[in-house]
Design brief:
The complex is a heterodimer of chains A (about 650) and B (about 425).
Chain A: H1 3-26, E1 36-42, E2 46-48, E3 51-53, E4 57-64, H2 68-99, H3 105-121, H4 126-188, H5 195-211, E5 214-218, E6 224-228, E7 232-236, E8 239-240, E9 242-248, E10 251-260, E11 266-268, H6 277-312, E12 327-328, E13 333-336, E14 343-344, E15 347-350, E16 363-368, E17 371-376, E18 381-385, E19 390-392, E20 395-398, E21 402-403, E22 409-413, H7 418-421, E23 423-424, E24 438-442, E25 451-452, E26 456-457, E27 471-477, E28 480-485, E29 490-497, E30 503-506, E31 509-514, E32 522-527, H8 536-543, H9 562-602, H10 606-641
Helix pairs in contact in A: 1-10, 2-4, 2-5, 2-6, 2-9, 3-4, 3-8, 4-5, 4-6, 5-6, 6-9
Chain B: H1 5-32, H2 43-97, H3 104-125, E1 146-147, H4 150-154, E2 160-161, E3 169-173, E4 176-179, H5 184-189, E5 198-202, E6 211-212, E7 216-217, H6 220-225, E8 231-238, E9 241-248, E10 269-270, E11 276-280, E12 289-297, E13 305-310, H7 316-328, H8 334-394, H9 398-424
Helix pairs in contact in B: 1-9, 2-3, 2-8, 3-7, 7-8
Classes of the chains: A alpha+beta (about 650), B alpha+beta (about 425).
């Protein structure tokens, strides 16, 4: 070895340094690029009598500055952050929908009740009735409009799920491909790392991980395997599986995720297995917020429609006929699992008497071990029945038309269609049942001071068929009376003891007589013919505005008015949005922190590269000087011979 | 810490983005005047605002109902005032007709005016609210409540009430449902006849000049407990002595003896004109107690009879018509004059019941209107309170928002300037 070769080795090393620095500078803003540096070491020295004499230098390798631990931290944080970001983007659609005080349910509800009060103030006025009917139409339209918006958001979510899955498939194919190239590069490069390929693969993984949380296992040949969920392999070495957006078995309107294995068979992934990333965000948004909000809105619609129908049927319209249904009530949605072995569908209905017990949850009814098992999906409360029909949480379940095989299941969505399918059942203003169907009269010949109340019709509907019979209450003495149905000529009761102000109830009505009736006094209850100015029933309907009618636990009193229940939706969506934003901000903070730590280690600092540039330039110049001196020395030697 | 060039740019841009976003939010709050732009800004306040909005809407509705109630009650008040005037005038005419110097034709003149008053009163009872609804028909506001004529009544067919007893009510506060109408049956038809317990009458064939008053119940408990409430006072004149028997017309027994009427002349009471006839056992009479007394003035003839029976009710129209009938009948004989005097007496008594009923109802209407007044101011206070609550919940605090805006603007400018400065630093500047 000579001085020139030493100089030459230095020259080479400095050149490699300059090349690497130049590479760093030019990739300073390449996403996912990690800075590289040369690892330079001295050549083995030569032993002479005078000791070891250095032999110059060489470049061992070009190293990629990277920390796998920091990289994993970034992946972890990013999966969480994109999940929250996607969730936020979705739920803020509902948040904005409910934000406008003039666009939500609240103003339509108020206008409807105002219409009722107008009819109460002037029951005989056709104009007032028309405005009430218009307000009812507007309310129905508002329910449907809000539901339509929910459905659009649901459809958008489905489409995004499909789009995300398409992208995931692209990434998994590319990752398998890049694995292949890395294996080949590493095999041919005598174990030198293909730094830029590794950067590319890490970038791709980072992008994939933003779509759905993945985990990786590195193999000895340089490739890595990628898993999603609970270890479902997405990429194994150079082979990739693909995901598919498929309709859920028990709900064709619900896109869910399946993985297609090597054999081409699609296997459904449970939604709880997929978390993190925007796909995870979409699925949890749909499960936690969208379903809940749409069901809750539907619950208000179903309860309101049922309550109004019940009261309306106890009234009498302007033509003198008994009230009909005011609204059409949506039936629960029943979805038969496509994998069921049995046949038929159970009959599921809304139970009018316990409609206040409706929850916002969906239910799964399964036939397990000869018993019917009902799971409330919101809180997984399970109830087992040996036989049906049963009434649970405001719905009736009758399996007479269902012939299930073992382990068959159906999905019940009691209120999902509530807001979409509520309708106005009346179109003629005269059919608004503002009046009560009965009236009471004290005989003009009465000599006592007894007074009779106007009378009320006993709930629930249907009203007693004898309701409108003419019935007389005749006092046989000051302390007892007989009750006689004139229409059918039957004695309903005789010798009833009289107590002032207590209920007297027959044929489905209740009146009260107070004061001191005399013997021979008579009171009568009869059909309210021509009672066009009677507003008793519409006043009762109007009273529903402030009555708690929603959210009863079995056997207890309801806890919310319609408006209160709507406020609950607004509050729940608002809180969830708020929560998602807060968690999202925290996750973003983690991402920033982890990315900063990685960037701090692996990012290119141009000042540093400038310094390195100077350093390697000087090293190059110095090595060149060494060569020059070697030449000059050689010249000196040649000059000796001249 | 090692800092990469990318970090300087990323961090700079990120902080400028953050500042811009929060600046925009304050700007939106100021522009819209709302503190809560979406429910997520303050979920609890957003939900509460909805509930308060409903409460405020309901108060507004109650205000409308109150206005409606006040107008309905106002109309009723006016008509009741008119009815009071008419009944007052009828009362006046009735009293005037008792003047013994009046001739038949003068009485007929009074009767003519009474016929006009009858029609006026019927018109009031059948009055409408201006929108085609009858005021006093109960729930049957499209049915004319009263039908009848003076001649019809005199021929035996009473005025017919075609409405019902319904009373319209309106909710005017969360806890108050107020009556906004009164049924004509109560106002005009169901009016106690006589003294409130019983009504007196004379037999059509009386030949004496006895006039019975409407009597009085001094012991209501005894009246209520009394087994016989329908009594005839039968007069006998024997040897210049006028005596009377009290007969329970249901059983046919004399109350004085407890045995079948008539009682022996000796067992009968001696009549003294103008002295109250006490309807309870005196001396050795069989026990009976109606807790009441009547007075008969004038000279009664043998065979004259007067009755009393539980009054029931009599419509004000019947009262007026009967008075007209009495005034139009010729009163030439003393007996006819006595009958006229009795009739006028009954009419005056019944008219005062009718006037009382109307004025009671008027004062009820007045107190309802008073209540509506105070409810109105209560509702206004409530409304103000709700508006304040809503404003606290929803509205932006401008002083705070504007100061926030200035501060955030300053922060954004600082971030922009510092970023610009730092990004200028590079070693390459010196190479």
């Amino acid at each position: 070895m000579g001085i020139s070769s030493i100089g030459f080795s230095g020259l080479n090393a400095a050149q490699a340094g300059l090349l690497t620095t130049g590479h760093n500078i030019s990739n300073a803003s390449t996403p996912g690029y990690h800075r590289q540096e040369i690892v330079q070491s001295a050549n083995g020295s030569l032993f002479t009598g005078a000791g070891f004499i250095g032999q110059g230098t060489h470049v061992q390798t070009v190293k990629r500055v990277y920390d796998e631990f920091l990289g994993r931290q970034v992946l972890n944080a990013e999966a969480g952050a994109t999940e929250m970001e996607t969730y936020r983007a979705q739920i803020s659609q509902i948040d904005n929908l409910l934000a406008d005080p003039s666009a939500g349910l609240s103003p339509a509800l108020s206008a409807f009740f105002k219409g009722l009060q107008d009819v109460a103030a002037n029951p005989a006025s056709v104009a007032g009735r028309q405005s009430m009917l218009s307000a009812a139409e507007a309310l129905v339209a508002r329910f449907q409009g809000l539901d339509q918006r929910f459905s659009e958001i649901r459809e958008g979510t489905n489409q995004q799920i499909s789009a995300q899955i398409g992208q995931i498939n692209v990434f998994s194919t590319q990752l398998a491909d890049i694995n292949q190239r890395i294996i080949m590069a590493q095999a041919s490069g005598t174990n030198q790392q293909p730094n830029d390929l590794l950067d590319q693969r890490d970038t791709m993984l980072r992008d994939l991980n933003k779509l759905v949380r993945v985990s990786t296992v590195t193999q000895s040949d340089g490739s890595f395997n990628v898993f999603i969920g609970q270890g479902q392999p997405l990429v194994v070495g150079t082979r990739s599986s693909s995901l598919q957006a498929v309709a859920a078995a028990d709900d064709p309107q619900r896109k869910t995720v399946a993985i297609v294995g090597a054999g081409g068979t699609a296997q459904l992934l449970s939604e709880s297995q997929i978390n993190g990333g925007s796909l995870g965000g979409l699925l949890s948004f749909r499960n936690e917020s969208l379903d809940a909000a749409q069901n809750a809105l539907g619950r208000i619609a179903v309860t309101l429609a049922q309550n109004f129908n019940d009261q309306h049927r106890l009234g009498q319209d302007l033509t003198g006929a008994m009230g009909q249904d005011l609204f059409t009530v949506a039936d629960p949605i029943v979805r038969v699992n496509s994998g069921n072995g049995g046949s038929g569908t159970p009959a599921i209905g809304i139970d009018a008497a316990t409609v206040s017990e409706l929850t916002g949850s969906d239910y799964r009814l399964s036939f397990v071990g000869g018993n019917y098992q009902l799971i409330r999906l919101a809180d997984n409360q399970t109830r087992t029945f040996a036989s049906l029909p049963q009434t649970v949480d405001g719905i009736t379940i009758d399996a007479a038309t269902w012939l299930p095989a073992a382990d068959d299941s159906i999905l019940i969505q009691p209120t999902r269609a509530g807001a979409r399918e509520i309708g106005l059942a009346l179109s003629d203003v005269r059919q608004i049942a503002a009046a009560a169907p009965i009236r009471s009269t004290a005989s003009l010949a009465n000599t006592g001071t007894g007074k009779v109340t106007a009378g009320t019709v006993d709930a629930p509907p249907p009203p007693n068929p004898d309701l409108q019979h003419r019935v007389t209450i005749s006092f046989t003495s000051a302390t007892s009376f007989d009750v006689f149905d004139v229409t059918t000529s039957t004695t309903l009761a005789s010798g009833v003891a009289y107590a002032s102000g207590s209920d007297i109830a027959y044929n489905g009505w209740t009146v009260r007589i107070s004061g001191n009736p005399a013997s021979g006094d008579a009171f009568s209850v009869e059909a309210n013919a021509n009672g066009v100015a009677d507003n008793r029933n519409i006043v009762l309907l109007g009273g529903l505005q402030t009555r708690n009618t929603i959210g009863a636990e079995a056997g207890s009193a309801p806890t919310a008015t319609y408006q209160g229940a709507y406020a609950q939706i607004v509050s729940a969506v608002g809180s969830k949005t708020n929560e998602v934003e807060a968690i999202g901000a925290a996750q973003q903070g983690l991402v920033d922190h982890a990315a900063q730590a990685l960037e701090s280690l692996a990012g290119v600092n141009l000042d540093e590269e400038a310094a390195k540039l100077l350093r390697y330039q000087q090293a190059y110049q110095a090595s060149a000087k060494v060569l020059e001196i070697a030449t000059r020395i050689f010249d000196e030697i040649l000059a000796l011979g001249r | 810490m090692r800092v990469s060039s990318g970090m300087i740019f990323d961090a700079g841009i990120a902080s400028i983005n953050r500042q811009t976003a929060s600046l925009l939010k304050v700007q939106q709050q100021i522009a819209s005047g709302r503190r809560i732009l979406t429910p997520s800004d303050d979920p609890v306040a957003a939900a509460r605002a909805l509930e308060v909005t409903q409460a405020s809407d309901i108060v507004a509705q109650f205000k409308e109902n109150q206005n409606y109630a006040v107008s309905a009650l106002g109309i009723e008040e006016v008509q009741l005032g008119a009815a009071t005037d008419v009944i007052g005038r009828v009362h006046e005419l009735a009293v005037q007709s008792t003047n013994s110097t009046l001739t038949d034709s003068a009485r007929a003149g009074i009767a003519t005016e009474l016929r006009a008053r009858f029609d006026e009163l019927l018109g009031i009872a059948n009055s409408g609210d201006g929108t085609g609804n009858y005021l006093f028909a109960g729930f049957m506001s499209s049915t004319t409540p009263f039908a009848g004529t003076v001649d019809g009544i005199l021929a035996g067919s009473d005025v017919v009430y075609q409405g019902d007893d319904g009373q319209r009510k309106l909710q005017v506060s969360p806890t108050r449902v107020i009556e906004v109408s009164d049924a004509g049956s109560d106002l005009f038809r169901r009016i106690a006849s006589g003294n409130g317990y019983f009504a007196t009458d004379y037999a059509a064939g009386n030949s004496g000049t006895g006039v019975i008053n409407s009597g009085a119940v001094s012991n209501p408990a005894a009246w209520n407990a009394s087994a016989s409430q329908q009594v005839a006072i039968n007069f006998t004149v024997t040897g210049g002595v006028t005596s009377y028997d009290l007969v329970d017309t249901v059983s046919g027994n004399s109350l004085l003896t407890g045995a079948a009427a008539p009682a022996a002349p000796g067992a009968q009471r001696v009549f003294q004109a103008g002295q109250p006839i006490v309807l309870s056992a005196q001396g050795a009479e069989a026990p009976f107690d109606l807790g009441a007394s009547v007075t008969i003035t004038g000279a009664t003839a043998d065979g004259d009879s007067f009755t009393l029976a539980p009054g029931g009710s009599q419509s004000v129209f019947t009262t007026v018509a009967r008075l007209i009938g009495a005034l139009e009948a010729p009163a030439g004989t003393p007996a006819a004059k006595a009958q006229l005097a009795s009739e006028v007496g009954f009419a005056v008594t019944n008219l005062s019941h009718a006037a009382n009923r109307i004025s009671e109802t008027r004062s009820l209407v007045g107190s309802r209107m008073n209540e509506l007044d105070s409810l109105g101011s209560l509702n206004e206070d409530l409304d103000l309170q709700y508006q304040q609550t809503l404003s606290t919940l929803q509205d932006v605090d401008y002083a705070k928002a504007v100061s926030d805006l200035t501060r955030k603007q300053f922060e954004l400018e600082a971030a922009q300037q510092s970023f610009f400065k730092i990004s200028q630093l590079s070693l390459f500047n010196f190479l």
